[in-house]
């Protein structure tokens, strides 16, 4: 087994409870020295935390939310590939909701003009993108969150209670197969929770770095079938938890 794949397997084993050196030696038929080297490498990558006799899962680290300008400039090619793949799920006659975020704005940039598709959004970036191209769009009300140029809060929540959608296209600060999606504020997480309950289908658009990321403390679980559209490699380690989850369908745009 190649080193990278072995370390991925050791990481999964520790996550599943096989946390001591002796158990890992037996499971993978490797020496104690090899296990210790692999655990040390995984700790340096921030994936595990070394403890006496073995390792445990790394604690969740909450990070400062990235600025809007930084997010807009980061991995624009990956976002464009994801957006192009997402277009294939939009059909004539759909009512779609484009959630806040720069990846969802990338979808707005590629949307063709189709008067039969009703577009609703809380994303002012997408609003500007669509209106500049002469595409009709409905903006819901709410309190502006300048860090994402999207609206949330009680007015936005009330609007959702009066609307239903065929498809929601959303993104997040982080997406975890077990926890759901994390956001920089409780208002964003609560809004997503309501949003996911008002649609027939949920599509999460996420670049590779967002997968498994638990960078914020505010979570919205997804207790229903949903589709992950990502630029992660189809056979890459970040996708394994999602492929193994009974509710998640994975679509790759790599």
Would you write up a description of this structure?
- The chain is of the alpha/beta class and 254 residues long.
- The protein is built from 10 helices and 14 strands.
- It folds into 2 domains: 55 residues, Arc Repressor Mutant, subunit A (Orthogonal Bundle), CATH 1.10.10; 185 residues, Rossmann fold (3-Layer(aba) Sandwich).
- The two termini are 25 Å apart.
- 37% of the residues are buried.
- The model has no long low-confidence stretch (mean pLDDT 88).
**Amount of beta strand:** 15-25%
First and last CA, distance: 25 Å
- Write the element-wise H/E pattern from the N-terminal end onward: HHHEEHHEHEHEEEHEEEHEEEHE
Cα radius of gyration in angstroms: 20 Å
Main beta sheet: 7 strands, parallel
Give start-end ranges of low-pLDDT stretches: none
Q: Count the DSSP helices.
A: 10
Question: What's the architecture of the largest domain in CATH terms?
Answer: 3-Layer(aba) Sandwich
- Overall geometry comes to elongated
**Helicity range:** 25-40%
The CATH topology label of the largest domain is: Rossmann fold
> Which structural class best describes the helix and strand composition?
alpha/beta
Strand order of the largest sheet: 5-4-3-8-11-13-14
CATH class of the largest domain: Alpha Beta
Topology record:
Elements: H1 3-15, H2 21-28, H3 32-44, E1 48-51, E2 54-57, H4 68-73, H5 76-87, E3 95-98, H6 102-110, E4 118-121, H7 124-132, E5 138-139, E6 143-145, E7 150-152, H8 154-160, E8 165-170, E9 174-176, E10 180-183, H9 186-197, E11 199-206, E12 218-220, E13 226-230, H10 240-243, E14 248-252
Parallel strand pairs: 3-4, 3-8, 4-5, 8-11, 11-13, 13-14
Antiparallel strand pairs: 1-2, 6-7, 9-10, 10-12
